[in-house]
Design goal:
Two copies of one chain form a homodimer. Chain A is an alpha/beta fold. Chain A has helices at residues 5-18, 23-39, 41-53, 60-65, 69-84, 122-134, 148-164, 181-187, 201-210, 233-245, 264-277, 286-291, 323-333, 346-355; strands at 92-97, 103-110, 113-118, 138-142, 172-174, 194-198, 223-227, 254-260, 281-284, 298-300, 314-320, 338-342, 360-365, 380-384, 392-395, 400-411. In chain A, strand 1 (92-97) and strand 2 form a beta hairpin. The first copy, chain A, is globular.
């Protein structure tokens, strides 16, 4: 393994020089990166095949790792969108003259160096590099060893483009894929400003537990939909089905459906055929189990099924007697990602929106919308499920910090 | 020691109820707390005497612990100021209707539960409790065992006032002063939203290393003033003297003065008599040492004297050849708190303001202004020296997080 410390230091220094790069060169480098990525797609896909060859083709991770012409084009388009976004740094947030004549300005500035620890999706490599370049941050990429060849080829393309535009290629650094590399990241408080784990819950917990660099958590979402007694049944069914089946492997997919007992019979009758089409496996509490007994993919829910992020075509269902009970359940099991109520009763919707403590709280819509692009924020680093700095989609605009500038003429206190 | 877990859980629950308290009751409770504090000052000062009796009267910490009528009045006035500030929660930061008809709102909401680990100043107990009440956050106070009697008396006054105003007194909880209590805080990720260490550098490092709850670092400031070659000498002398002697024990006091070699003779000649009045001890690099050899309190600087936070009437002095060298030194030794340049050359000031990476960067003013009250933000929890969420004075307006509210009519993705 290459020593990691010198790589971190190089990136730290390159990030300082990136602050002085012209706006024009950053925009041009990003546009050129999209073009160069498409031009070099064959080489990138070849590298990707080497990684794929080592994988079990039946593992869902293998599909996440896969690159093809179509996926490369999607990544290039995402980079083009990022190129069009404006620099989140250099904004004047506040300006005031104090009584003593001091001029006080609060401005946004780049964070410095952003470290991202992620798993096998190759688009993450390009997304993070492009977002960090656009916001003038250096980035340290710690991908998974499964994607080693792909990431090396990706970063080679990125570095070549940076160089061609007079930008220090050390701004984007791929760290060795061995797990030990992260230990050095965890203690690099002088050179790394934030660490972002992007992936499984186990990865996130590991980073949180061990990092001394501030961490922004992203990812794990145990999401609930509460079908309230005044719900429009057809809306509730559509929303639940969409939130479960449209992309079950992602964090904003629903995990538990809470159904008001008063409408449970009607709602579950309408839900069953729709879930059946997609062979959704239901984990039901005793009350729901009685109502669902004809459903072929039915299990009795164990306590562990509530609070479980399924990431697959599985769904827990529980009957509740009222809004308070639904709120209690969510408070106990939510990971504070995305939570929804379906109801035509505006007062109850309002209470749910106010009282549920989560990054995104919905009334009468699918939890699947929690996403940077959907919210109009552009590509995201991840969905933050903690409360400091960034909450919900963590996109370009949050890749900055603040700085106070104080201009005087000799003032003392 | 009392078990800590149930105390944390109680505060978590009380914080939920605090979200529903009326604006009127919060304002009234704060105003009443100021009044009640003054009315009960005798009892509070009696408790404080018990703590003082156990201290070495020659230790500077003892003065920090001391309460008297005057200090109680200052604390009460600070609470009155906080009562007049408006709730930082419940603000609409952004609102847009998406193409699919979803109404998206980004609003500010309380963080939830704030844990503060601090040392012996009794005003911190009241400031934190008042700021958290004003922003509808529960707070867990972990003071030092030296202030145990004082803090118990303080929290008793606070709880009595909360109760009288129909607010759950568990919103403000004093944790046992034994060090083991913090271990429970470090892992309470489900119930505590942020931990703020306020005190020595050792305390901050201990919290950063051990906490799994997100931490906002406050405090340690190794502050520099760079006296550039085009500095107005009288301003430079005033600023350096003020930044060193007006309150040497605080984090925004200057630690190292970097002097451009071209004006060093002139500047140090004028500085010496002023430092001498206050018996400031100078730790000089070899070049400065030659120019200062007549100064009675002179030491040769060791490498460890640069990057040292003196918190006393001591000051390191080093000659530098130009702005780049000053920037390099600051980059190496700064704790990113407060940094200043003194110069009449606007271009150099501008470069310094742009390139120095710190919470507050000054041109021609004393570093001592880095303070919530001075910046017009009100009382502060501390000075944040990290980059996420809050940077610089961490005051009421940052005791919130964001939440996305999404209102639909059945939208699916």
């Amino acid at each position: 393994m290459k020593p990691v410390q010198p790589l971190i230091l190089k990136t730290y220094k390159a990030a300082i020089s990136l602050r002085r790069a012209t706006e024009r060169s950053i925009k041009a480098a990003l546009t050129d990166l999209a073009r160069s990525l498409e031009a070099n797609s064959a080489a990138l896909i070849r590298a990707n095949r080497k990684d794929l060859a080592r994988q079990d083709p039946n593992n869902p991770r293998t599909d996440r790792l896969l690159l093809n012409e179509d996926r490369v084009r999607q990544i290039a388009n995402s980079i083009r969108t990022i190129a069009r976004l404006s620099d989140p740094g250099g904004r004047l947030l506040e300006e005031k003259e104090l009584k003593n004549g001091l001029l006080l300005q609060k401005v946004t500035v780049p964070l410095g160096v952003v470290g991202v620890i992620y798993e096998s999706r190759p688009n993450v490599t390009f997304d993070i590099a492009a977002l960090c370049l656009r916001s003038r941050n250096g980035c340290l990429l710690k991908g998974s060893s499964e994607a080693e060849h792909t990431n090396k080829a990706a970063v080679a393309i990125i570095k070549k483009v940076l160089k061609a535009h007079g930008i220090d290629p050390d701004c984007v650094t791929l760290l060795p894929s061995e797990r030990e590399a992260v230990q050095e990241l965890f203690t690099a408080t002088k050179y790394v400003d934030v660490l972002i784990p992007r992936g499984s819950d186990a990865l996130i917990r590991f980073v949180r537990k061990n990092s001394q660099v501030p961490v922004i958590e992203t990812g794990a979402g145990v999401c609930h939909i509460y079908v309230e007694s005044a719900a429009a049944i057809h809306k509730a069914v559509n929303i639940v089905v969409n939130a479960k089946v449209s992309r079950p492997s992602v964090c904003n997919a629903v995990d538990t459906v809470l159904v008001d007992a008063k409408i449970a019979g009607k709602f579950l009758n309408r839900l069953q055929p729709r879930f059946l089409e997609h062979k959704v496996e239901i984990f039901a509490d005793p009350h729901a189990h009685k109502l669902l007994k004809a459903y072929p993919y039915l299990q009795k829910a164990t306590p562990a099924d509530f609070g479980r992020e399924f990431l697959s075509l599985k769904c827990a269902v529980k009957l509740v007697s009222d809004l308070d009970k639904a709120l209690d359940h969510i408070r106990e099991y939510s990971t504070k990602h995305s939570e929804a109520i379906v109801s035509e009763n505006q007062k109850k919707c309002q209470r749910f929106l106010e009282e549920v403590d989560a990054a995104a709280v919905y009334a009468n819509a699918s939890t699947r919308f929690t996403d940077g692009e959907e919210f109009g924020l552009g590509a995201e680093i991840g969905i933050s499920t903690q409360k400091l700095h960034a909450r919900g989609p963590f996109a370009l605009e949050k890749l900055v910090t603040e700085k106070w500038l104080v201009k005087g003429s000799g003032q003392v206190r």
